[in-house]
Amino acid sequence: MRIFCPHCGERGLEEFTYAQDAERARPTDGGATPTKEWEGYVYLRDNLKGPRREYWYHGGGCHAWLVVERDVSTHEILSVTVP
Questions:
Q1: CATH of 2-24+33-81, one of 3.30.2270.10, 2.40.128.600, 3.40.50.300, 2.20.130.10
Q2: Any residues with CB less than 8 A from the CB of 52 and at least 6 apart, and which?
Q3: Model pTM score
C-alpha cells in the first residue's frame, strides 16, 4: 500500500504508523475517573466495512499527522488531508 503525503509525495506504508479512527469523538469529561463513555471509547469498536477516516503519522518522513480516508475492505486510499 502507498500513501500520498501532501508534503513528501507518494511513499511506502512502512514510513507511516496508524494511530486511530478519525471519526470517533473523544469524551469531554477529562478521563480522571472511569465512566461508561470512556469504556466505550477505549474498548468498544464497530468493525465497519467501506470508507473510513483514520489518523496516520508520517514518522519516516516529515513527521506530519494526516487524515487518510481509505476503504478498509480493499485498502484503497481515497484521500489524504492535513487535519
A1: 3.30.2270.10
A2: 21, 23, 69, 70, 71, 72
A3: 0.82
Enter the C-alpha cell of residue 44: 468498544
- Residues sharing a CB contact under 8 Å with residue 1, sequence separation 6 or more, in sequence order: 13, 75, 77
Provide the residue ranges of all domains of the chain, joining segments of one domain with +: 2-24+33-81
pLDDT in tens, 34-76: 888 888 888 888 888 999 999 999 999 999 999 999 999 999 9
Residues in the chain: 83
